[in-house]
Every structure is written in C-alpha cells, then in structure tokens.
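Researcher: Good morning. I'm working through a list of sequences from a screen, and I'd like to move beyond sequence-only analysis. For each chain I'm collecting a predicted structure so we can compare shapes side by side. This is the next one on the list. No need for commentary yet; just the structure.
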Amino acid sequence: MNWILASALCMFLLGCSGNAAAQQIECRSSAPLVKAVTSPDNHYVTTRFQFDTPNLQPLLTTSIFVNSRGSSCVIAHFSAHARITDNYIVFQVRIDGVPMQGHLSAIGPYTTPAIVALYDDPSEQLSDPTKVVAYNFFARVGPGTHTVQVMVAAGSGIDPNNLPQVGSPVLTLQHR
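Model: Good morning. Structure tokens for this chain:
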C-alpha cells in the first residue's frame, strides 16, 4: 500500500514541476574558495516530513564567510547514502534559513521546497536498500558570514524499530 502512495506522490511531484521549466534562474561569480563538511557514519532520521510545514531535522551545519563586494553565488554539492524504510526521504539545503535554488519548488498548497528520494520498486519496501543520493544547489548572497544547513526528514510512517538512516553525508560549498 505504501508503494502506491509513493508512486502517486512521485507522479504528483513530476506533474507539478512542469510549470517551473519555463522559469530559469541564474547565478554567476568566480568561486575560488571551497569548504567541505561531513559527519561520518549513519544518522537516524526520526522526523516525519510534512509538506505544509518545514518539519525537518538538521543533518549538517557549517558557516562560510563571503568576502566580496556586492553579491556572490554560493554553490552547494550534497551527497549521501539514504536507507529508505518508508517510501521516501526528503532533503533540503538552506543558507541563512532559506532553501537554496535547485529544490522542487512549493507544490500546490504545500510550501516546503525539498528534494525527495523515493523507492524505485515496490519490492524495495521489504528490503530497505541504501541508495546513493546527490544534488546540486545554489544561492546568491551578500558579503558576510552565512550559515549553511542540510536538513532531512522521512516518510510519514516511520517505524521506531526500523528507522531510516543517512550515511556518510558530504556537503561541499564553492564561493568567493
């Protein structure tokens, strides 16, 4: 039954994303500085995602200092191993509390921009496989210190005896 919900969610998200294809957003600047952060091992996901409220738990947090005149483009590369135990896991990368460009935008009445990693096959629900996830994001920011966070949540049917996990998350930031 849960795979039907996941399939319907995926189709809904894909159907709603068609309008965004015409709206292109760009960000350009030199990016000579690189900062990377990780938190090795596996991290349990205990927060249930809700599309209408930003119900996410922190996974990684770091800060960067942008030393430029005017604005600068910050590029974030995120990757991890996601063990999905209930249909999907949701990721969001924020800078100063605001989701960066590259997420699925607000969908219908829902206001939480996110990236959703789904089961590919209904039989996977019985084996809880680990999937590699990788995403790129960007945002334009002004000079100064900025906080970058990777947030995570899981499907609405989290089993406390079989928690979803995120392993070896890595966030790499390029900026000036």
